[in-house]
Amino acid sequence: MKKTITLTATDSVVIEAANVQKAYHTGTVSVQALKGIHLHIQRGEVVAIMGPSGCGKTTLLNCLSGLDQVTKGSVKIAGQDISQLSDRALTAFRAREMGFIFQTYNLLPVLRAVENVELPLLVTGVRPRDARELALEGLARVGLEAWAHHRPSELSGGQQQRVAIARALATQPSIVWADEPTGALDSKTSQEIIDLMLQLNREHQQTFVWVTHAHEVAQQAQRLILMRDGLIVEDQPVAASAPPTSSSAAHEPAKSSEKGVK
Ligand SMILES: Nc1ncnc2c1ncn2[C@@H]1O[C@H](COP(=O)(O)OP(=O)(O)OP(=O)(O)O)[C@@H](O)[C@H]1O
Ligand SMILES: [Mg+2]
């Protein structure tokens, strides 16, 4: 029987990595990008991953989300070892339950904002009319309904990242992976994007995993993982008493000409 995977509301541990190793081979050179990662991520957690460039953060996201295969060890999602799944089952699961946000937004330039957001819905088989409605709702949630019919090139960096967030959340995924989601944004816009993700986490118990170079971003997660040279060297709750950063202390909830974030 073909294996499939589903997440139910009772699955508290969403992701489990056991001794995950990943080697890349290019020509005669091989790089051990992950050297034995052990990690549990719970439903509804906001986790920040930090570490120097090249320490394996993106590789870890790719392995945990099943975009890339591990060389050794295992990744379980909702208790199911993803290496046991067919490509098709894994792709379908990813489309349904995972959202991705990247530093450079990765919006399709020829598509309007609403078309970018509805794409993952169409991929999962939602009817076009329903997908359009859901996409417009998603854009409204990030305060961008007035910009639905604009192309990415007509939007600011922060607006493009909000479209990318609406797209990542369109299918109401359980887990959202964000690889430097604020890396290309100024500090005020960056804080708006963080506030938006934290609000969505509170309202929908979605799990967020942020890779970031910014301490002021990481301090707003619930848990901070530090990586070095392919390994986790620290994994701690973010202290509730951590002093607010100057940008977050000064920050007011997003209010913009596009109706603000609801
Ligand atoms: N597709 C690939 N082929 C070969 N080597 C790779 C590949 N992807 C990553 N690497 C190597 O694996 C190591 C980890 O890379 P990774 O991209 O995960 O680092 P990172 O922590 O995300 O860095 P950054 O902060 O710069 O984004 C690096 O040495 C990198 O050169
Ligand atoms: Mg990276």
Q: How would you describe this structure to a colleague?
A:
There is one protein chain. By secondary structure, the chain is of the alpha/beta class. It has one domain (44-67, 85-249): Rossmann fold. Helix content is 32%, strand content 26%. The chain contains 8 helices and 10 strands. It has helices spanning 57-64, 87-97, 113-123, 128-141, 157-169, 187-204, 215-218, 246-249; strands at residues 13-26, 29-42, 46-50, 72-77, 80-81, 98-102, 175-179, 207-211, 223-228, 231-237. The strands form 2 sheets. Strands 6-7-8-3-9-10 form a 6-stranded mixed sheet, with helices on both faces. A 4-stranded antiparallel sheet has the order 2-1-4-5, covered by helices on one side. Helix 5 (157-169) runs parallel beside helix 6 (187-204). It is globular and about 45 Å long. The protein starts with 12 loop residues before the first strand and ends in a 13-residue tail after the last helix. The structure holds adenosine-5'-triphosphate and magnesium ion. The site of magnesium ion has 3 residues, from helix 1.
